[in-house]
Amino acid sequence: MASPHDLENAFSKQIQQCSRCGFCQAVCPVYGVTLRPSYNARGKMLILKEVMEKRIPLNDELIETLFQCTTCGHCETTCPSGVTVPDMIRKVRKDMVGVGSCHPVLKGMNEVLEKQKNIYGETNSEDFGRDKNRKADVVYFVGCVGTYREKEATLSALKLLDRLQVNFTLIDEVCCSGVLEDIGYEMNKALVQKNTDAILATGASTVITGCPYCFRTFTHHPSYATLKERSLLILPMISFLRQFRFGVVTPKRVTYHDPCDLGRHLGIYEEPREVIRQIAPDFVEMRHNRADALCCGAGGGVRGAYPKNSIAIARRRLQEAEEVGAEIILTECNSCVHNLMNAKRSRQNFRIRTTAQFINELMEEAASVGR
Amino acid sequence: MQENLKLAFEEVVGPSNFTDQLIDLISYSYDASDHDHRPEAGLWPTTTEQVSKILSLANEHRIPVTPRGAGTGLAGAAVPNQGGLVLDLCRMNKILEIRIADRLAIVQPGVVYADLERALSRYGFFFPPDPASSSVCTLGGNVATNAGGMRGAKYGVTRDYVLGLEVVLPDGRIMRTGSHCMKSSSGYDLTKLFVGSEGTLGVVTEIILKINPKPMATKTALASFNVLQDAGQAVIDVMHSGIIPSVLEILDPNTIRVLRDHGNIPLPEVMAMILVETDGHTEAETSYQMERVMEVFKKNRVRDFKIATSVAEAEDLWRIRKSIGSVAATLRPSNVSEDVTVPISRVPDLMTGISTIVQKYRLPFVVFGHAGDGNLHPRIMYDPADPDQVKHVHQAVSEIFRLTCDLGGTLTGEHGVGLSKAPYMTWEHDPLALEMMRGIKRLFDPNHILNRGKMALEG
User: What three-state secondary structure class fits B396?
Assistant: First the structure.
């Protein structure tokens, strides 16, 4: 008999494959700040095993662990048994939503996206002082966090594109809706359609995303297949910046935080470092970097649903930046910037920026000195 | 457990360090073995005094208590098979002191092995046992199981480094054993009695560890042999040579085949491979040792060998050894991994004997391990959903234990007895010795509240 739960059909082998070695506990950010093994990937797999064996039902009692995962994928990189944990978390969250068990904050996020156009339920349409939906070579797709929470970073990125004389336009964008898949819901087809239509209407050949999550969604989710079929080149900002020489350097010590959406999930580690080395001769790595990078704590709905632990996770990352004496932390994700900024203690005086934002600031400084 | 008793335990540690939530009870039902049983509550004590109050209360009400570290054990020692309380010590995770002048470190039981390693490396020191789960396992767990690892032949196991302990006895009394000294001939060695006692005698709340200066140079090589017996003889002859390599890992023909066929690792079709590491303070020192080892290998008809000339090359060789577990895991949904140990000269007999046993049951398996100290890891892959395979695995493991004991070996070199090996303790131990162990258990824990059902102590 087919199981009522999607998870069981798709992943029963994976659940059995977990050898319970617990190696994931060494890297799980949520475990790291709570020292509570039921939050770790093994704890989650054991719960799913008992669900599969029909020893326990899927219900509200499980929300606290199944919805408390940043889907950073660090566990997957250390798993000797090849368990693809983030995929399983996504699936089981759908099953949980299916039986009416979801974290209220995340349920709220889905409801917001049914009515509004962004995850924050903001009603004003940001234009960053520009005419949107113009005909242009390039569409710059900002993303929700960059539009409503990290506006400075976005303004800087847009100015940088101006400096680099890129013929780009903003569009009346809406949430890419990829996050819904992470928190137990389906992609919102209306939002997908709006974004697709708006991008195509510009006649652009390239889409630059300001958010690595949007990039992942555009390039990897089948609902955005139209973009690929129309041969649009979709790039995260950092890959676009690679072709340029900026002619500025900072004497400050710079480190780079790998966002999981660009790093572990897509394997893009070297491009950001290539660009950063160009502008920062004193570049240092934090102890955990690339595939081993610590999570910022924001993903998978954790920032919304479990803010205290989310901040605690970010603080661990900032601690590593402090250990290597970094003055500037660069990253490629507005969401990481946002969470790290929220977690920054007053005595920690490093600047946290997106790479584009920082390059623009350097060029601005150079220009003002030049004047 | 009655609600008012739960409340009493909760009062000892505070609400944020008590749980009877389903999610926690499930995660505390398991370790890395195939045993499971759900406890009634979990506690995260943060001080010795809390542990003392918890045990005293549990003792009074005869509540079973199972101490737990990271739960990476492979023998079920941390599974609360009688229900009751799980005492998770991971929140007692402070490194209290590092005293280089006295060559020791003092830690709480919940300190993760890798965290101590990192702290010691700043001083050029290390804590040598190096269990495979070092990134996650706790030092309390290492003490409880007398954990060891790949460098055991040269550096020994946890027991060789524990100088003293603070232990809470089952009735709540707090006892100090051992000293801060490098040596002591003073009285019974209660410290070492607790090492490997798997939480059956008391709960360790502080550990004094001897530490070693870290050898700064290593040399790594991988050798292959056409005949398994030649590899076995080579290991024996290395012992005669006077060189003790820091690593001497042997891979049997099944392991080599599995890595080649399922792990896409281009290995030759040979009957045995040995990974060797020598260590020391200078390159000359490690090279000298490696040359002597290779001379021995050549005398024993080594087919070929590669000595790494860079860190990257050494890592490549290590990757072969370290990928065995993950590649083998892909063959069947589950596996059982044992750690039988024999006198070094019997390693080839044990390897071929294990093969003969497991082949009868037509299950995929690999045999590899620490040839330098006679500790082998037979790992048998099976599907737990198939009752025949489950039965066959149990039969095979039982026969492997029989063979090991017949070869003068021990059931467990580094994982511990727990639940998995408890039924076989009579095969290994003199009946009188086992009776003495049970007497010791009765002396410390007359009400049998601590980790009941483990190590065949109630038999």
Answer: helix
The answer to whether A81 contacts B326, with C-beta atoms less than 8 Å apart, is: yes
Q: Which residues of B touch A45 (CB under 8 A)?
A: none
Q: Tell me whether residue B182 is exposed, middle or buried, using C-beta atoms within 10 angstroms of its C-beta: 0 to 12, 13 to 18, 19 or more.
A: exposed
Class of domain B92-213: alpha beta
A201 and A165 belong to one structural domain? yes
Rounded alpha-carbon distances, angstroms, from residue A139 to A155, A236, A258, B92: 15, 12, 24, 53
Q: What residues of A are in contact with residue B26 (Cβ under 8 Å)?
A: 38, 43, 46-47, 50, 56
Dmax over Cα atoms in chain B, in whole Å? 71
3-class SS at B42?
A: strand
DSSP per-residue string spanning A138-168: EEEE--HHHHHT-HHHHHHHHHHHHHTT--E
Terminal Cα distance for chain A, rounded: 76
With beta carbons under 8 A apart, name residues in chain B contacting A68.
Answer: none
Q: Is there a contact between B330 and A82 if contact means CB atoms under 8 Å apart?
A: yes
- Among candidates B33, B91, B329 on the partner chain, residue whose Cβ is nearest the Cβ of A17: B329
Q: What is the ipTM of this complex?
A: 0.95
Most B CBs within 10 A among A14, A15, A17, A38, hence the mutation to make, goes to A38
CATH of region B3-90: 3.30.43.10
CA distances from B400 to A70, A171, B361, B365, B444 (A): 43, 69, 13, 13, 33
Contact criterion met (CB < 8 Å) for B329 and A47:
no
Residues of each domain in chain B carrying CATH 3.30.465.10: 92-213
Of all helices (H) and strands (E), which one includes residue B306?
Answer: strand B302-307
Task: Provide the shortest C-alpha distance from residue A80 to chain B (in Å).
Answer: 5
If one counts the domains in chain A, the total is 3
Q: How far does B27 lie from chain A, in Å, by closest CA?
A: 5
DSSP strands (E only) in B161-265: 162-168, 174-178, 203-210, 212-213, 217-225, 247-251
Q: How many whole angstroms separate alpha carbon B373 and alpha carbon B341? A: 8
Contacts of B91 in chain A (CB under 8 A): 35
Residue recorded with tokens 């490396």 = B121
A122 φψ region: left (φ > 0), alpha (ψ -120 to 50), beta (else): beta
Tokens of residue B192, six digits = 């070492």
Domain region containing A143: 138-241
Cβ–Cβ gap B23/A38 under 8 Å: yes
CATH of domain B217-406: 3.40.462.10
459 residues of chain B, pLDDT tens digit each: 899 999 999 999 999 999 999 999 999 999 999 999 999 999 999 999 999 999 999 999 999 999 999 999 999 999 999 999 999 999 999 999 999 999 999 999 999 999 999 999 999 999 999 999 999 999 999 999 999 999 999 999 999 999 999 999 999 999 999 999 999 999 999 999 999 999 999 999 999 999 999 999 999 999 999 999 999 999 999 999 999 999 999 999 999 999 999 999 999 999 999 999 999 999 999 999 999 999 999 999 999 999 999 999 999 999 999 999 889 988 998 899 999 999 999 999 999 999 999 999 999 999 999 999 999 999 999 998 899 999 999 999 999 999 999 999 999 999 999 999 999 999 999 999 999 999 999 999 999 999 999 999 986
Test mutation, B17, B27, B38, chain A, max A CBs within 10 A: B27
